[in-house]
Amino acid sequence: MAALVLAPLAVRPAAHDPITTKVTFTREISAILAARCVTCHSPRGSAPMPLTTYAEVRPWARAIKEQVLTRRMPKWHAARGFGAFANDPTLTPLESALIVSWVDGGLPEGTATRTPARRQAIAFTRKSDQVLTVRASATQAMMRTPTAWVAGWNFEPGDPLITSAVISSSSGAIGTWVAGDAPVVLPGGGAVRVTGEIRVRLNRRNASDYEQAVTARSSVLRLRVAGTQHPRRVWTEQIACGGTPSRTGNVIGVRPLLEPAASARIWVQRPGAPAAILGWFRDFDPAFARTYWLARPVDAATDTRFQSDGKCNVELTLAARG
Questions:
Q1: Distance CA 221, CA 141 (A)
Q2: Higher confidence at residue 128 or residue 308?
Q3: d(CA 314, CA 307)
Q4: Per-residue pLDDT tens for 131-160?
Q5: Comparing C-alpha atoms, which of 183, 157, 182, 140 is closest to residue 45?
Q6: How far apart are the C-alpha atoms of 319 and 212, rounded to whole Å?
Q7: Does domain 234-319 have CATH number 3.40.630.10?
Q8: In the chain, pLDDT over 90 holds for what percent of residues?
C-alpha cells in the first residue's frame, strides 16, 4: 500500500478478542500484505509504518480494514469496473473479505510458517542501463545522454517521503514512477527515443508525526536501453480532453491530469463506433499522478476523440502499430 494517513483509525484491539474466524495472519493475511502492501509498508518504505510482522500489523488492523473497504488503499485512483489496467495493485474481493473476516474475527495470529514471498521485481542491473543518481535532498536531477531508445525504467527512492517521479528527456516525456510501482518494461518490444538531457523530477509528502525519522539517501533512476537497433516506437502525447492525437497508434497507457481532488470519466469515441471506456479516475492527487497501463491496447486514429465528463488533460502513451 502506498503512503497513507492511518493514525486517526489506528485503534489497538482488546488484549483478549474472542476468536470467531479460521482466517489467520500467518496463513492468509501475511501473504496478502506481502503481495499488495509491503512494497511501501516496509522499513525505509514509502509509507509511514511497516506492515511486515504480526506485531506491526495488529495495532493498525482496524484501520487497514477501513482503508480496504473504502478502497483508499492501496493508492489507486481508477474505479473498479471502468477500464482494465495491467498495473492495478488493488485487492481482489476475496482478499478484502479475508481481511474483514480476520479483523472482525479477533485477529488470530496462527502458527508460524515460512515467510511469504514478496512480489518479484524485474532486475534492472544490466551494464547497458543508463543510471541517474539524485542527491538525497534534491527535487530533480539531470544528465546528458547520446540518442538512445529506452525500453523500461525503475526508480529506487532513497527517501521514504518521495511519492512519485516524472521522467523526461529533451525530446519529451518518458514515463512516471509512483510509490509502490513495479519496474516498467514497455510491451511488444517498444521503446521511447531519448535525446539530449534526461531529467527526473520528484514529489515528496510531508512526514507524519507518528512515523520514525529516517535519514534520506541518494535515489537512483535506472533506464533500460533497448537491445535492438530499430525497436517499436513508443511516444507520449498530451492532449486536452475532447481532443484527438496528432498521430495514429495503439494507446498502451493513460495518465490523467486533473485538478486536485477532481474526478473524470475518460472514454474513446470514433465516428460510427461505440464508445470505449478508458477509465474513471477519482479524487485526483497530483503527488500520485501515475500512468495507468492498459491491459488491452486501444487503437487510436486521427479521428479518435478522447472524451471526458470533466475538464482535464490526458497524457497518452502510444505505440506504433506493428
A1: 10
A2: 308
A3: 10
A4: 999 999 899 999 998 888 999 999 999 998
A5: 157
A6: 43
A7: no
A8: 61
CB contact at 8 A, 267 and 278: yes
Give the CATH number of domain 130-230: 2.60.120.310
Closest CA to 192 of 165, 232, 241: 232
Cα 261 versus chain centre, distance: 18
Cell digits for 294? 492498459
Give the long-range contacts of residues 135-143, CB within 8 A, separation 24 or more: 135/218, 136/216, 136/217, 136/218, 136/219, 137/216, 138/202, 139/201, 139/202, 139/204, 140/199, 140/200, 140/201, 140/202, 141/199, 141/200, 141/221, 142/197, 142/198, 142/199, 142/200, 143/197, 143/198
188: left (phi over 0), alpha (psi -120 to 50) or beta: left
Does 6 score more than 50 pLDDT? no
H runs (alpha helix) in the chain: 30-36, 54-57, 61-69, 93-104
The count of other CB atoms within 10 Å of the CB of residue 183 is 16
Which pTM was predicted?
0.85
**Lookup: cell for 29:** 493475511
pLDDT in tens, 274-290: 888 999 999 999 888 99
Q: Tell me the residue type at 19.
A: I
Specify the domain boundaries for CATH 2.60.120.310 within the chain.
130-230
Residue 57 has pLDDT above 80, yes or no: yes
Length, in residues, of the chain: 322
Q: What is the end-to-end Cα distance of the chain in Å, rounded? A: 36
| pLDDT at position 5 | 41
**What is d(CA 282, CA 61) in angstroms, rounded to the nearest whole number?**
26
Domain with CATH 2.60.120.230 in the chain: 234-319
**Contact criterion met (CB below 8 Å) for 82 and 275:** no
Instruction: Determine the Cα–Cα distance for residues 89 and 101; give it in Å rounded to an integer.
Output: 21
**How much is the pLDDT for 117?**
56
